[in-house]
Amino acid sequence: MTIDHYSRIPQLVFGFHGCDESVRDKILNSESEHLLQSEHDYEWLGHGVYFWMGDPMRALEWAQEGQKKKPNKIKNPAVIGAIIDLGRCLNLSERECIEDLRFAHRELKKNILQAGLKMPTNVRQDEGGITLLRRLDCAVIECLHKLNPDKYQTAFGFFYEGGPAYEGAGFALKSHAQICVRDLSCIKGYFLPRKS
User: Is residue 196 part of a domain?
Assistant: First the structure.
């Protein structure tokens, strides 16, 4: 069975990106500008433009948290919406995509050991013991994209984050679905989300 038949999610989705108000306005007032792709070594889904799927409130919370950490970067927290065609998606809820990651991990490990280097690791940081700095995951996903440069345009994952939503909960306060867009042609347009 091949993933090509099933990895294309046949729908457009709404994604929300937390940012400074000036960034939001710049993108909304342009016919060609895009949000910048993040290329940190700890990104949860590899390098690309990140969106919270269907959750403008979580995007705003992220921007507000960012304002506290880096007040010079985010002065006025805001949210921009995007219409995204997931296209060929590294969907981390699908078994075959996980197998692709396992293969990429083996290749990454082999290459790093041959070079005499140390494997990157994920770092747990939040109150729920959740991994927030995903250096290993990012390196594996980036290795997968190098091995198969045209296979995936976007990545999708569901993440358990934050402490329990309530006592004994199997749900976390900041759980979310996240989208990472590598191929900017998958972003079909930007919009200003309505408040009600």
Answer: no
Residue 1 pLDDT: 46
Instruction: Give me the chain's average pLDDT, please.
Output: 89
| Cβ(142)–Cβ(90) below 8 Å | no
Give the chain's residues under pLDDT 70.
1-10, 125-131, 196
Under 8 Å between Cβ of 48 and 179: no
Q: What is the pTM for the complete model shown?
A: 0.87
Q: Does residue 4 fall inside a structural domain? A: no
C-alpha of 78 from chain center: 18
Show Cβ contacts of residue 69 under 8 Å, excluding neighbours closer than 6 positions: none
- Position of tokens 């960012």? 66
**Cα(155)–Cα(178) distance, integer angstroms:** 8
Structurally, the chain folds into a number of domains equal to 1
Q: Within a domain: residue 31?
A: yes
**Is residue 5 included in any domain, yes or no?**
no
Let me know how many helices (H) and strands (E) the chain has, helices first: 4, 9
- What domain range includes position 116? 12-191
156 sits in the region (left: phi over 0; alpha: psi -120 to 50; else beta) called beta
Specify the DSSP class assigned to residue 102.
H
